# Entry
Amino acid sequence: MYFVGIDVSKYKHDCFIVTEEGVVIKDTFSFDNNRTGFTLFFNILSSLGPPNKIRIGLEATGHYGNNLMKHLSVKGYSFVLLNPIIVSRFRSSETLRRTKTDKLDAMLIAEVIASRDFKNYPLLAYHFNDLKSLTRLRDRYVKQRSQYLVHLTNQLDVVFPEFKPFFGDSLKSKTAIYILTKYPSPTRIAKMNINTHELLRKVSYGKFSYAKFVKLKELAQNTIGSSSEVDELTINSILRLYNVIQEEINVIEAKIETIMLALDPPTMSIPGIGLMSAATIVGEYGDITRFASDAKMLAYAGLDAARYQSGLADYKGQMVKHGSRYLRQALMNVAISTLNYIPPLYDYYYRKKHIEGKHFRIALSHVARKLVRLIYKLETTRTRFDLSLYNSHK
# Structure
């Protein structure tokens, strides 16, 4: 068996090849992150023998290795994707010297995969990587969209302060955005006619009643705000950017939905976990069957508690918070929503953790841990959620 360690970077990758007996077949060499470099690398791999005699390891260090992983999968090579923390700790156990180079990392990765029987990354890595990239991109765009809404709110506080209270939490609703796009000042809103109301009824799917229409016009006529040509230009500019980012979010969400329908993960069957949250969880975890236990999943998400044991002292500390913040954030968010749909979870949260005096976030983290264990059970057995299954597993 040959063990191939690859240290991934933006423009080049460093590689080290050794046999299971410790014989160095190819000392550390570099190949460019382009077609010429890939050709060189795969020629060397093919000279070693069939793919099933080769184990390849890479660090999970962002998107720079995505193209290499796809080429490996297409050519039939399996590979192990290592958490950088594992490599770092292996380095610390092997030497006290604080030396870190790409060449040394490639050698260390080869030694790590040779020392333990890691589970290979699946060919479905295409879907998992795509989900991970898309959900992270969506997260960034959603945050940008929120910033535009903050700018819009600040502008309306000057121009038409009564507008946001009228719509409440629905300022980002299609109706509110449509009105401001077409009528970016109180003066224009006050002059809306009955034909406008018909359009607004269609935009709101019949929810924007004539009474609301009349009330909004009255508020516009009697507003304490003041607007100018510059204010209108500012509102129009903010809304153009908002609408562009919203269109991008729509495109991304449509692609995420397509991938999720193809994967059909059991996680999506858990009440209270929406499609986008499930996509984030599945994308960040990847192939859940590669985890030996639900405890490994907890550690991967950084939801496990730190533990200190020395002599008679033995206690658990705070959440370690290693791993993906996107994953941890998604799990904590769905922990809140699932409380409304899964009675045993609510009882655990309220009747046990809340009564014990646990802080809201701490109690919620316990719920998130239970969810991770449930997700592990569902995904590894490929079964859908039902309360009897949960009750038997809790």
